[in-house]
Amino acid sequence: MKNYYIIDFDSTFTQVEALDELARISLKDHPDREEIYQKIEDYTNLAMEGKISFRESLTGRVQLLNANKSHLNKLVSHLKKKVSLSFGRNKEFFKKNEDTAWIVSGGFKEFITPVVTPYHIKKENIYANTFKFDDEGNIIGYDDSNPLSDEGGKVKLLRALNIDGRIFGIGDGYSDFQLKESGLIEKFFAFTENISRQSVTEKADHITPSFDEFLYVNDLPRAISYPKNRILCLIIGDVPEIAVHILKRDGFSVRTKETFEEKYVKDVGMLLVADGVKILDEQLERADKLKTIGYLGDVKGNVSKEICTEKGIVVFDDKKNKKRNSEFIPRRMADFINNGDTYMSRNFPNLTLPRLMQAHRLLHIHQNVPGIMAQINNVYAENDINIISQFLMTKGDIGYAVTDIHAAYDKNLLKQLKQIDNTIKFRILYK
């Protein structure tokens, strides 16, 4: 049986609710605009939480818009810049699944189609409402015969389509959950990258903070090997808000604490630490998932570089206390996680890598002893791997080997690379 992917548009494929954004464009010069914006937003939220019918919400919002075709053109330009980050980086998934990845939305084709078709989503696989216009191009209503304009519209549509296959639903609202409730879909994934509604998440089969997470749990082609929302990033101490924002926006699971609490030691993947905070040696020794530390001050005397190096933890710090480093340090951390860059690290060879293009990047951190590269390349040779590019740098006792390879390979290759003598840490990236 084929798998079909039914994806919502507003606050799922895009970061925003399109009708709310259209109101902000069309009512920009209206004297009562703030009051009308709030009414439209209230209609949206009440329907998404299942507190009023979808048709009641839709009618109320459209009547308040005072919009025309020129406003729609501006909206489309705006929405193209507001595609959810995790959807934006997974274009390749839609290309490979162009027959079974569908947009099903209570929004409107007039703005949905031009936003999603550049992502290889076929026009015939976009199911949404349509506006009615007068002779001057003003929006005067919508086609109320379309099932998607009615309460339970997505359920009615899927029943009519009678799809022969396993259907997965992805969305943020009550109308998306109704598909699960109806029994028409295999699983419902509550999408929370942009907004989380408790009335929806508590009923979902799986909460997916990003599209990467959905692809990961279903073992589907994806832009990154491991969802960043699964990487716990702890912010310790008084760290500037801009630094926190950068890491949150990149999709990491960020928590802010005054101290490095014991309960996080074994699970933390990234640490961003305020100046003056000391990380204990015994905590570092047990932080087996920790990949990188950013220190907003001089790391000397506060974090053991020796232990970090032994455990393959890449350290970035702010030795000269420059103001811009509250942005620079978290970006360096993110670049290491995302691309393998170690530029400006205090304890690793400094390497800036080219962006990955349709390949898998394997990072092998090892003790700097003779013969490691020979062992690594023997593994590639024995597995008939086509190497696209390879980089090696050393610093003191540490060796950092980066190899880009084509995506087709037996997963046993990864096990073999991890088992090479003197391996400290091994990671896989793909973008």
From TrEMBL:
Gene3D superfamilies per the UniProt record, alphabetical: 3.30.70.260, HAD superfamily/HAD-like, NAD(P)-binding Rossmann-like Domain, Phosphoserine phosphatase, domain 2
Keywords: Amino-acid biosynthesis, Hydrolase, Magnesium, Metal-binding, Serine biosynthesis
ACT domain span: 361-431
UniProt-listed InterPro entries: ACT-like_dom_sf, ACT_dom, AHAS_small-like_ACT, HAD-like_SerB, HAD-like_sf, HAD_sf
GO molecular function annotation: L-phosphoserine phosphatase activity; magnesium ion binding
Signal peptide: none
GO biological process, one term: L-serine biosynthetic process
GO cellular component, one term: cytoplasm
Metabolic or biological pathway: Amino-acid biosynthesis; L-serine biosynthesis; L-serine from 3-phospho-D-glycerate: step 3/3
EC number assigned by the record: 3.1.3.3
Pfam family, one: ACT_AHAS_ss
Chemical reaction(s) catalysed: O-phospho-L-serine + H2O = L-serine + phosphate; O-phospho-D-serine + H2O = D-serine + phosphate
Top EC class, one word: hydrolase
PROSITE patterns according to UniProt: ACT
Cofactor (UniProt): Mg(2+)
UniProt xrefs under PANTHER family: PHOSPHOSERINE PHOSPHATASE
Protein name, per record: phosphoserine phosphatase
Species name: Sphingobacterium deserti
Upper taxonomic lineage: Bacteria, Pseudomonadati, Bacteroidota, Sphingobacteriia, Sphingobacteriales
